[in-house]
Specification:
The protein is an alpha/beta fold and about 550 residues long. It is built from 20 helices and 18 strands. Strand 14 and strand 15 form a beta hairpin. The structure holds flavin-adenine dinucleotide.
Length: about 550
């Protein structure tokens, strides 16, 4: 009886959209294409920016480019798209990736269903109607049955609360909010705060233009050369002919790359043998040094030390001043436990006469921003421009900013104060019909992200098709069951604890590697991770649900069978 009443009440409430997607980067664009063109749903997208592209719309700092190889840093769901697009370099620059995403938006006719310049600030579930109401900063109010947060794991800027920031008389830019017409550093004294992946890309470029550059470092970074360049046309042709194989291999790999670890222990090799292997990976450049190295670097401190030692020797061999080399040498965390930045002349930049490194532990941390520059370790460094390269409030930041309230008015931001709890980064108990793409506890930024995105979008599409077919879009109570959610979170925690036994990864409180935010990510491939998800109905309904006639709309009472 209750069910019947519930269903008729739901049927009488009008929705503006079947689904609302938040964000128009890689995730939101593919989600729109899938829900609108495969399931024929009535969908809209709210995007805070004035164009598509997400990460590649916002991050326009000098040197911004991807560090996944371009042939797999793209959508792979459309065979024709794979054949028609040509990348110019191994790691294309921001403007080329943005052009690619613009091309996809045109090709799949996405823009008519995207509302640009609309920032979602409230997403509230109504227990009675079982619908979500979304509000934007610009005053829009819409109601939908499904909400998909495609807001990006790295889209909420992290700006540390520096004392005196407002008082600075020069210009100050965060790298993810870069002016579209660029910044001229000619004849300027520039300070860059942060030496993570973004700093590693930006510092060599800025040093070439600026009169003087001061780099403020909190934690040094292990770097491996990117070895960017044009891709041999024969290699490109061979890859285009083998995209079915490539797609299969990246989906079944640990991190979404065509890379696999060396199973042998590095401790079972002779110094000559491993040196040869390290040199080979170093010369190839890119992620092999991190993701195709001896696997026990993740399980044994002794093994990790052997590999880290190779990189430390490279720092000493490249940086002329031994004091500066020492400052640039990481000492407080094991190699490989942060996403590996790839560099082009990063270490060499510290040999330039116009570049100074101020290290928080040896020279003293930043104390305040003054009207004329930055004071660190009791000394003032005069500056005209400050570049804040401090990364993101990663993984949870953009979701917390949505003002999400689930069943019984539960606020997500409050519930996640002690760290996120999700079902594999895809769904959250107590927040029915709300999906997240590359959310916390998914492989997310530890993977080649487009691979994780495609996996999530395809799973969400199938799940919604199933709900539409069987339950007329009513919230699926089993998604996820609170008990199951807790079990999964425990499994994820245990995997991480055991996987990194002996390494004692230090919890970091800011930047991409904020373990607290990650909610203990599982180091596994999206495919493997989602295999346990197959206990939910996705696999069973695939064939049936994807061939539903259009007449199976939400208004049909029990029409799905
Ligand atoms: C500089 C940089 C380099 C990177 N390089 C790589 C790489 O080489 N390989 C790799 O795998 N990954 C890389 N990444 C990670 C990258 O974020 C992903 O690869 C991918 O672009 C994520 O796509 P997305 O659509 O999930 O998120 P995003 O691209 O971040 O898009 C999210 C969108 O949501 C919008 N949004 C957020 N909140 C709201 C709101 N409240 N209302 C409305 N709209 C909102 C944002 O404006 C944004 O447009 C990089 C990230 C950065 C920052």
């Amino acid at each position: 009886m209750t069910n019947v009443q519930g269903e008729s009440r739901r049927a009488s409430v009008k929705t503006d959209f079947d689904a609302v997607i938040i964000g128009a980067g890689f995730s939101g664009m593919y989600m729109l294409h899938s829900l609108r063109d495969k399931l024929d749903l009535n969908v809209t997208v709210f995007e805070a920016g004035d164009g598509v592209g997400g990460t590649w719309y916002w991050n326009r700092y000098p040197g911004a480019r991807c560090d996944s190889d371009s042939y797999i840093y793209c959508y792979t769901f459309d065979k024709n798209l794979l054949q028609e697009w040509n990348w110019s370099e191994r790691y294309p620059e921001q403007d080329e990736i943005l052009r690619y995403l613009e091309h996809c938006a045109e090709r799949f006719d996405l823009k008519p269903d995207i509302q640009f310049g609309k920032r979602v600030v409230e997403v509230v579930f109504d227990d009675n109607t079982e619908l979500w109401t979304l509000r934007t900063e610009q005053g829009d109010v819409v109601r939908a049955r499904f909400v998909i947060a495609a807001v990006g794991a790295l889209s909420a800027a992290n700006i540390p609360p520096f004392k005196g920031l407002e008082s600075f008389k020069g210009k100050c830019y965060h790298t993810s909010q870069w002016p579209h017409d660029g910044v001229d550093f000619t004849a300027k004294r520039v300070g860059v705060i942060g030496t993570g992946a973004t700093g590693v890309q930006a510092i060599p470029e800025i040093a070439q233009q600026a009169k003087h550059l001061t780099v403020f470092q909190r934690t040094p970074t292990f770097c491996v050369p990117a070895r960017n360049g044009r891709v041999d046309p024969e290699v490109t042709t061979a890859r285009k002919a083998d995209y079915d194989g490539i797609r299969q291999r990246i989906k079944n790999s640990f991190f979404g790359f065509e890379l696999n670890f060396i199973l042998k222990s590095v401790l079972d090799t002779t110094p000559e043998e491993r040196e040869q292997e390290f040199d080979r990976m170093w010369d190839v450049g890119g992620f092999p040094f991190w993701l195709a190295n001896y696997q026990d670097m993740f399980f044994s401190k002794e093994a990790n030390d052997v590999i880290a030692d190779y990189l430390k020797r490279k720092i000493r061999a490249t940086v002329n001043d031994p004091v500066v080399a020492e400052k640039l040498t990481p000492k407080t965390y094991p190699y490989g436990t942060k996403r590996q930045p790839l560099d082009t002349n990063y270490l060499e930049t510290f040999n330039k006469k116009n570049v100074v490194l101020v290290d928080a532990s040896t020279d003293g941390p930043i104390e305040e921003i003054t009207p004329n520059g930055i004071r660190a370790g009791g000394k003032e460094y005069p500056l005209d421009i400050i570049v804040v390269a401090t990364g993101f409030d990663a993984l949870t930041g953009s979701l917390k900013q949505l003002g999400i309230k689930g069943r019984g008015g539960r606020a997500l931001a409050q519930e996640w104060e002690e760290g996120p709890q999700t079902y594999l980064g895809l769904a959250i108990a107590g927040y029915p019909n709300l999906f997240t793409i590359t959310g916390p506890q998914s492989p997310s930024v530890l993977s080649n992200v487009p691979v994780s995105i495609e996996q999530h979008v395809e799973w969400i599409t199938e799940c919604i098709a199933h709900m539409r077919c069987r339950r007329q879009g009513a919230p699926l109570p089993a998604l996820p069951r609170p008990g199951r959610r807790r079990r999964v979170s425990q499994e994820v925690r245990r995997g991480r604890r055991e996987g990194l036994r002996g390494l004692r990864v230090r919890e970091r409180r800011s930047g991409r590697n904020r373990a607290h935010n990650c909610g203990r990510m599982n180091l596994t491939s999206p495919d493997r991770e989602l295999r346990s998800f197959s206990r939910l109905p996705a696999r069973r309904f695939r064939r049936k649900s994807m061939t539903l006639p259009k007449s199976h709309g939400f208004a049909h009472p029990r029409g799905g069978k």
